[in-house]
Amino acid sequence: MLAPVSITGIGKCVPEKVVTNDDLAHLVETSDEWISKRTGIRSRHVAVEENATALAISAVKDALEMSGEKPEDVGVIVACTITGDELTPSLAGRIQKAFGIPACAAMDVSAGCTGFVYALVTAASLMDTLGKDVAIVVASEIMTKYCDWTDRATCVLFGDGAGAVVLKRSEIPHLLHPILDATPDTDDVIVVKKEARSTPFSGEVESPRESIQMKGADVFTYAVAVMENSLNQLMERCTDKPVNKIVPHQANEKIIDFVVRSMKLPRENFFVNIANYANTSSASIPIALCDAMESGWLNAGDRVAIVGFGSGLTSGGAVIDWTIQNKKGE
Predict the structure, then answer these.
(1) pTM value?
(2) Torsion on CA atoms 183, 190, 267, 247, rounded to nearest 10
(3) Does residue 329 form part of some domain?
(4) Does residue 142 sit within a domain?
(5) What are the residue boundaries of the Beta-ketoacyl-[acyl-carrier-protein] synthase III C-terminal domain, all occurrences included (predicted)?
């Protein structure tokens, strides 16, 4: 069961350095036209001095400030990342330490690019189970550290960033109709291996630098199918009030365009900001929600569907009745 919650604060943080498609043309055989035509991406933020923890802390700080909640009132922290700075402690634990939260449930989830959806549902579920009133959900990724910068098919796709929301128990539920799903990745469609490590008992092992391995055509086929399926389920469940806004995972604009055509939905109902960020994995949905609100596209009273898909192969979605008034709507 989910606790009845609303999102009361949101924040994002991206690295300072911006790398354009023209910049990448100096590294690999590519061009702005080649990348943008196939993906919709124009530029991405790339971490130089920043790390996943620092980006997450900054995003959470903004979300807490907007919500007005005090760190000591936080009862649950759920973080999601596949590119965390440490194996242990968890990113959630680092957030707890950074904000001086004396006692709370703190954990990470790993669900690839669907991570934020999984983390959001997990946090609301834990709030119900543990009887907590406030939760932090944060996604932070440094994807560019795992790119093969000699492979033009994958290195152009990813960027770095973090996004966070604060959940507050409410009288009526504003997070609705959660969907969490996974399909076995029998063909290793998306894989990032850990680098091998030797012990005195294993002998020396080769430890090449591991990077993102992806079968693009298979990812596209999977993504459009599960995104359409999730959206259909969410819209069918909304019998009291229809979904009027959709914020999908920002993996490739062509995936979104395909679903728009297939489902015959208005393009203006979809928020797309991949041009400026590329694919930030689990951070893409909260970053998009933040941009959507700041731009005036998303406002209090909107019913927004979020849908994600990623490695695992995972997928999921949820409906959010948005309650934060954007500054342009005041």
Answers:
(1) 0.97
(2) 70
(3) no
(4) yes
(5) 241-322
- Average the pLDDT over 282-309 and give the result: 98
Domain range for 278: 177-324
Q: Give the model confidence (pLDDT) of 126-177 as tens digits.
A: 999 999 999 999 999 999 999 999 999 999 999 999 999 999 999 999 999 9
Write b or e for each residue in 134-163: b if 16 or more Cβ atoms lie within 10 A of its Cβ, otherwise e: bbbbbbbbbbbbbbeeeebebbbbbbbbbb
Residue 314 lies in a domain: yes
> Which residues are known catalytic residues?
113, 249, 279
Sign of the Cα pseudo-torsion (245, 157, 92, 2, in order): positive
Please report the pLDDT score of residue 329 as a whole number: 53
CATH of the domain at 88: 3.40.47.10
3-state helix/strand/coil string of 249-312: CCCCHHHHHHHHHHHCCCHHHECCCHHHHCECHHHHHHHHHHHHHHCCCCCCCCEEEEEEEECC
The span from the CA of 209 to the CA of 143, in Å, is 14
